[in-house]
Amino acid sequence: MEEESKKEELKKYKTGRLFREGFKVSVITDLVTGQESDTFVARKHGLSSGFMSTLKKEELAKHGYFRILEQMKKDGKKGESGEDLASENAKLRKALELATLKVAALETLIDVAEDQLNIDIRKKSGTKQSK
Prior knowledge:
This protein is an all-alpha fold and 131 residues long. The chain has helices spanning 2-12, 21-33, 38-45, 49-63, 65-76, 82-117. The chain is elongated and about 90 Å long.
């Protein structure tokens, strides 16, 4: 009886390797984030791509895709409120505005220098670097 259950467990995983639940969850988390491809995640964890697809189907059915996503959101965004995000957004907009003004000022400076000194400062398109 016990032998049959072992055989069934081994059939479940063709390689015969059994993995701890934490390892499976970390692999699935890597897959669900979408930052890396399935092949890259398989190589990263030393698994075959066929096994990855099997594991992905089983674990997503077992744990549920949305539960994993919710846990990832909780882990990644602790303490971030709407007010924090709004203030960060305002800071970034201000920095972008300053950077745009700086670029405009530098371009004006180059234009004035080219007119007064009669020197081409900007690189011409299609020119090669001198040796």
